[in-house]
Write a structure and sequence with these properties.
homodimer; 9-stranded antiparallel beta sheet; 28% helix; 4-stranded parallel beta sheet; Rossmann fold; Dna Ligase, domain 1; D-amino Acid Aminotransferase, Chain A, domain 1; 17 strands
Chain lengths: 378, 378
């Protein structure tokens, strides 16, 4: 179980590495080669760190910008072990990495944000129960393991409600909205007869998120909360500042702090909140990773969420989360990316394209952040 | 001489490529794998472009972040041809790329900023004569091809003066300062008996530079001029705004425009100016590439000099060069990089490390840009 050592690099032992600060020149292991892994690798490079990405074969835009790549399935034991032996810390760009993969690597190298965060966020029911245990409000919910339980849940929660698979749902997939009683019949089959939860509708005024980081020393830093607009279950726009009071922003940060501390979390987290019409907050869900609603930090802050995550997982001090500009981020989804030339011509617009091959409908191809609200010198 | 085509990528012909806009997904060929090549590759990635770096074997930090790398000497014909056939445009990160290498590639692919800019900037005498031909003031200078010509040049220009080799000098190398007559004897041997020029001292008040870009369509955009402080012949600090009048800034931009147009330049240029005590300007030298005194644009502008260069050489519209923050950039040279942990703790400080192995004295290991002057929201 001893870590494979590389004498030429003067590596610390595995036990030491769990608390050590990683020096520049160290290698970040990233599970996942999508746009988040890509932007993490770019942020690591800015700090003089190398990246080694592990992902299954396919269109992996992260692979264009990393120092090393392992193309393998997450259940290939030998590939996992070789990867873990080559890197100084492992992080993940998405919450559906198989827990078994990460548990295997955890015997060799530090995993950050950690396995608990992964396990909890992979299952909507476990996540909701975890939040409830912290006293954090969510939408009303009930477990649904079969069609009779769905009927029972609908009776308890009422309509409208949303049936969501407990696992492997993202960007609106694996979800059915139930508005009237006829919608209920067949819904269980529509989610593939998979273990699910029924969530009641929340009468919200707006959606915000907290992008926060917790360091290896327990320090916590939050960016200003963006206000988020979704379309077809996918984030469309994030805007800072959100049209909320300081009290609401502070309350959302406090709840996020509870979550981070309960998980002994290290890294960046994205927590999605509903702001209810009565001014209270309910958590929608959290993602144990950099978050789409934090992409504006690349252009509007000295330290982006990606750099903040890299700093945290390397044991570095967290950076200043202040923003120097107001910002509005629009995702470029599917054919939207075809607007790149017009967007590149627009003053104050910061264009980001992810280098993906095929602009399939619903696929996040890039984003654009418009900076404004402060006088720009010329 | 036809370009090797790749039907899978729907490549345009070589003639077409000379005027075409490169789509996202195209590959930038970068000659040189140092920190400038690295930051160009990172900027290309942001726009969904791939990078292929060509450089001799060694410590090449650019290689950590590019999609493909060719390790070869610049005079290896086959490697040059294979590289040129693989990329959609070629650029260079330093002005001492052998002209023969670039001429060879120019038969296959567009070279930007172009061969003239390279040829002129490689030779201090040719550069000074080029500037004089445009009516641009420089320090007084004279060609020195042997020891008697040095004596003659000193008699004409006076002391103090600097003897500089015409070729392959940078960061103060290949230079001898002559303060008193005894310094003159032996100076010719000190520069290696290489073809040189003698430059008279310029009684300057401060040094500034213009970082400007010219697009494929001839459009020109300038960043605000930084004020630069050198130590031991190496840039130490760049600060924006410079303490100069608008008239001086405009005059420097106008001179830069003359240089760009005369070279039919495409890409970013760095032009170094002396601001004389009488308020006039003299050009010190220009670099046909992104420039160390423009590194602050990474953090203080929506579009950095690196992205601006990539936009220009791809035929994209130039970006907005406005800055959102005041900035002060300090180079981290040699052992300075050891301060990384303290710098990472400093609010408003943007740390950049280049991923180089060995912090040798005089070696540029990274830089830090402090943002200030605008109110930062928290």
């Amino acid at each position: 179980m001893a870590r494979q050592t590389n004498p030429g690099r003067g590596r610390t032992s595995f036990r030491q590495s769990l608390t050590a600060v990683l020096d520049p020149g160290s290698t970040i292991g990233i599970l996942g080669g999508g746009q988040l892994g890509r932007m993490l690798a770019l942020a690591a490079a800015r700090l003089g760190l190398k990246s080694h990405i592990f992902c299954p074969p396919g269109d992996n835009p992260g692979s264009h910008v990393c120092d090393r790549i392992t193309l393998a399935e997450y259940d290939e034991t030998a590939a996992c072990e070789t990867f873990a032996a080559d890197v100084d810390v492992v992080t993940y760009e998405f919450e559906n990495v198989p827990v078994a993969c990460v548990e295997r690597m955890a015997a060799q190298v530090a995993i950050r944000p950690g396995i608990d965060a992964l396990r909890i966020s992979q299952d909507r029911l476990v996540e909701k129960n975890f939040l409830a245990g912290l006293g954090v409000a969510t939408a009303p919910f009930a477990a649904v393991d079969d069609a009779p339980m769905l009927a029972q849940a609908v009776a308890g929660i009422g309509l409208p409600a949303i049936l969501k698979t407990r696992r492997l749902g993202y960007d609106g997939r694996g979800q059915v909205t139930l508005r009237t009683p006829p919608d209920v019949s067949g819904a269980w089959e529509q989610v593939g007869a998979a273990a699910s939860i029924l969530e009641g509708f929340v009468d919200f005024e707006r959606e915000i998120s907290i992008i926060a980081a917790r360091g290896l020393d327990g320090a916590i830093t939050c960016y200003d909360p963006p206000e988020n607009i979704h379309a077809n279950g996918i984030l469309a726009v994030s805007r800072v500042p959100a049209q909320i009071t300081n009290e609401i922003a502070q309350a959302a940060m406090t709840l996020t702090t509870h979550i981070l501390n309960a998980l002994d979390y290290v890294g960046v987290i994205g927590v999605e909140f509903f702001v209810l019409k009565n001014g209270t907050l309910a958590v929608n869900e959290f993602a144990p990773r950099v978050h789409n609603s934090g992409h504006w930090t690349l252009d509007a802050c000295a330290i982006s969420q990606f750099e903040q995550h890299i700093r945290a997982i390397c044991g570095w001090p967290l950076g200043d989360a202040a923003r120097h500009s107001d910002a509005e981020m629009h995702n470029l989804i599917g054919a939207d990316a075809g607007q790149w030339a017009a967007l590149a011509s627009e003053p104050g617009a910061c264009l980001h394209l992810y280098g993906k091959d095929a602009p399939r409908p619903g696929r996040k191809m890039g984003h654009v952040t418009r900076l404004f609200g402060k006088e720009l010198h010329t």
